[in-house]
Amino acid sequence: RMSPRCSMAMILESVDADALIAHREVVTANIQTLDLLSRIDRDEDVSPETVLSHYVSRAAYEAVKKRITQYANETSHDPAQPFRQAKACWALATLGRRPDRMLADDRAPAEARAFAKIAEAAEAGTGSIEITREVVRVQKRLTVEARSPVRIDLAGGWSDTPPHCFERGGAVVNVAIDLDDGPPVRATVRSTLNKQLVLHSVDLGRRTVVTQWNSAAAVDVHDPLAMHKLAMHLAGLVPAEEQSVANWLSRLGCGIEVQTECRVPKGSGLGTSSILAATLLAALYRVRGVERSTEQLINDTLILEQRLGTGGGWQDQAGGIVGGVKLTTSLASVPQVPVVRKLKLSSGQLDEFESRLVVCFSGQQRLARDILRRVMGRWLAREPMMVGLMNDLKRGATTLATALEAGKWSTVGREIARYWQIKKDLYPASTTPNVDVLFSQCAPLCTASGLAGAGGGGFGYFFCRNAKQADQLRSFLAERLIAPGMMGSVYRTKINRRGLVLDVK
């Protein structure tokens, strides 16, 4: 009773206000972060911005960072857990974009870790390439030439890309095409008497003789021949450990020469990198006498691209190594099992579709990896608009497949046009001002237009009302694309009905 009495106002005057606010925010941050992580564990479509407050203290952000880092470091036997950890890492990256810049320095590392988790899960989710590395005697003077068309995606692209395909499944309609009267993707593998390992990329203008093999060098993404080396590694035609190539080839009984060529401009959007990887793997397997099914080649290519860090899904390689027009689907599962179904189009329907299709190069190159990270980043963040658009993509693919088989060409044009609009909604930079102007000028002569692949440049395609209108559009584009400052060109296009072809000599 003799003690001094203090009111709450008197106490508050004596406390460290900054420390009190920080303490309360740390408590709130921990509760909100645990709530976010529990929702991620339940596979809810939750955006971190709707759960994590805008804090004013650094300590609160550090508490969020600590919780998410702990979650990302946890080990689990659940094959889907790395995808959840990727979402958590992307949530941390999202905080780094806030105007207060509290975690700005953590943004880039968190984004990189998110996609590293995706790559880890994607490889684990597709299984491993079980090719024996026992030394085999390869037939001398054997030449295997593999040729593949490129692909144009007509609906559903992006739904096949990790992590979306693992979490929701995918559905894509695409068509295999030849450009200028032939398959533009080629890979040739020769066994030679000259015991050297020679790698040659014709279109890159790079040729090298490998003298020392180091498995770590096979995944150096800065090496222009990294894809060739990794394909050799996956096919079992190089040693599993570091050693002299001469010693390995001596045991193999021959030398190996690998030559690849893509007869399309770089940054085309036609899936050439994935199709080339699948084509090269097929040739390498044939040299070794190993049989791989279409499904295995699709998954092998997915593993190769994840190890290269280029990301990507399964629709490119499926679109190239399987000819014709097809619907490729997968269920939400780990691992992915893409099912390729050729659409039941008669020869007359294929001819009709081919006569209406016009393809040109826009003259602008783009890098798909940058676009991929931005689009899939929106998916990781579970932006509500993004979730709806991805659902629309898959619905559009099944609708287009039905319309193609029924020969409902007006519906086909409408669905292709809607697909291009969805791609622009997913990532506005999928188009460019020059492309918008070109498409606007071509609108009276077609019912639909779009850029192949991720967009941002590369090849454009047009679907016309009839063959006569398609001829008019080709003439217009030929004149338009030779104007000063334009670098594009029109290509002769045919639907490739065979897909991957292997010739053994």
Structure description:
- The protein is an alpha+beta fold and about 500 residues long.
- It has 17 helices and 17 strands.
- It has a 6-stranded mixed beta sheet with strand order 6-5-9-4-1-17. Strands 2, 3, 10, 11 and 16 form a 5-stranded antiparallel beta sheet that branches. It has a 4-stranded antiparallel beta sheet with strand order 13-14-12-15.
Query: Percent helix among the residues?
Result: 40-55%
Rounded to an integer, what's the Rg over CA atoms? 26 Å
- Main beta sheet: 6 strands, mixed
* Overall average pLDDT: 90
Number of strands: 17
Shape: globular
End-to-end gap = 105 Å
Secondary structure layout:
Layout: H1 8-14, H2 17-41, H3 58-73, H4 81-95, H5 104-125, E1 143-148, E2 150-155, H6 164-168, E3 170-179, E4 185-192, E5 197-201, E6 206-210, E7 212-213, H7 226-234, E8 243-244, H8 245-252, E9 255-262, H9 272-288, H10 294-308, H11 315-321, E10 325-330, E11 339-342, H12 347-356, E12 357-361, H13 368-380, H14 384-406, H15 409-426, H16 433-442, E13 448-451, E14 459-463, H17 467-480, E15 489-491, E16 493-495, E17 501-504
Parallel strand pairs: 5-9
Antiparallel strand pairs: 1-4, 1-17, 2-3, 3-10, 3-16, 4-9, 5-6, 7-8, 10-11, 12-14, 12-15, 13-14
